[in-house]
């Protein structure tokens, strides 16, 4: 479903560009609306007078926000109408990209998706790797020389071990053609791990029970600053012998530090999100400091060398300078990463590091706490994900040199690039565009993709587009000294040395596909593959019969049409009767939503609909019509629920057209029924459509044991949740 629909979405973008700007930014803007307008939407809309008043106000607000979108009675005009593919939350990348390419001084209002393309031109020579040398007084110079002269250090430091590894062309061919061999292991905290590699000799990693910080080969000053920065996550539960890491961090960093690829699908914004962020920030900064120290040390050696000596001894860099690419969903995430970097580089209060453009960065990536309405009631996980500045269109280059950090560095002078998928998409551009650039991605050595599940709610096509343009040979030399470039980069083997760290809140076929098809690290891959034992159905608190109806499909592409035909021919006829009113149909895919909406219109069914593009007034009307029973069906998209998390009142019958992407949405939607003031609990129904290709989603909802039984049996499964499970 993903790749085909993503391709078609890219083709039709140009036709809907103008509309996409307004509706998507309207969606983002409504996440930060005023207390008055939000409270009106959250009020009980059972009285038509109240609803009518708020509706009028929302109509006027909607017209102001969308400009040319207008205030039509029906919200369908705000919904992109081509069924064959407009991505659900695709921002106007071509329009915005063109603004930046033309050099316009666009406003940087964090509430809008337009970013100002500012780059720091003042500090170029100060942060140049080519013209600087290791500072003698820092002690790093002697340490680096000592390390380089020690064969033991070369053999044991994971950074040097990984980057200095040399391959023959035949070995590289094997890596690109041979299937991966895999093995299983169980770790105390991470649980079930799958190790895979194309190399014949690959060792299965064992979890370190205790960590000697010296064995981690942390670069100065990280060895001394990390315990202070990470102290907030350590509790009295931790043994005195490990004052550095939580148990989760220790096992994750153990894998990261060996330069294996890592997929961790149990990131939780509420519980472990920040400790994971700190762990990968430590790894990224450690990598950059070591790489830059090697270059600066070699600069000094080249300066002092005798004439006529071989230049090949100093191959220590890539074809372009950026080494680490960090993909995060919102500006708030970038803000926290940079703050962590600064904390890790500052040895103490007396030795502050110099950070250029820090004030500007705080202004553009920070947020005003007063902007958020105080009366909004949202689940805790929603508050954690949408904290701070939630603009999703940004990119920033960071250069680090000894005791200084340069924010807004030009990409070709940056060590680290922090960006959103959309921020990358607008600079990479598309084939045929005059102004596009992706050479700066040619020598990325560490790729970190955090909160990957959120990109499924934004536009997954941007992630795929990025993966296709990373580690390609640059089209221009960009002033590189080829005598300093590693042979692995000159041979176009960068992808085999790139480490990818992928963090997500869930297992998903599209995320799995990126990890399996776009990661070629010769060190191999490690994926955490724990199976859910209970499932989110255990959190349903209303007494409700759940009927799981199985679809039979030959392959994953045909299941889309088979699901539609099954729903139209077998499920919908059972709900056409007036007795089956108040039926909410939950639709995860926007494309399925458009298809169903068009069918309902053609059949003349009494329905209303809410999606991520629906204006405030349209949402208010739809909720009221559905509550009062004036509309029998409500089509409801998953992305709307993700971005808004409104409680829909009046649900008596529930149909999951497909299992939700987030398993906890299943129990959330079911539990909305308790908001229905009715004594007819026994007539409530819940129907779920699934196929064998939904195994991961099914397990997350009903648990692994039930899933195994349901996939073996071809019969429909009836479960009754008593509210005490």
TrEMBL record:
Keyword Phosphoprotein: yes
Biased composition (Basic and acidic residues): 1-10, 306-316
Oligomeric and partner information: Interacts with CAPN3; the interaction is required for CAPN3 translocation to the nucleolus.
GO molecular function, one term: rRNA binding
Name by which UniProt lists this protein: U3 small nucleolar RNA-associated protein 25 homolog
Gene: Diexf
Biased composition (Acidic residues): 37-62, 70-84
Cited Gene3D superfamilies: P-loop containing nucleotide triphosphate hydrolases
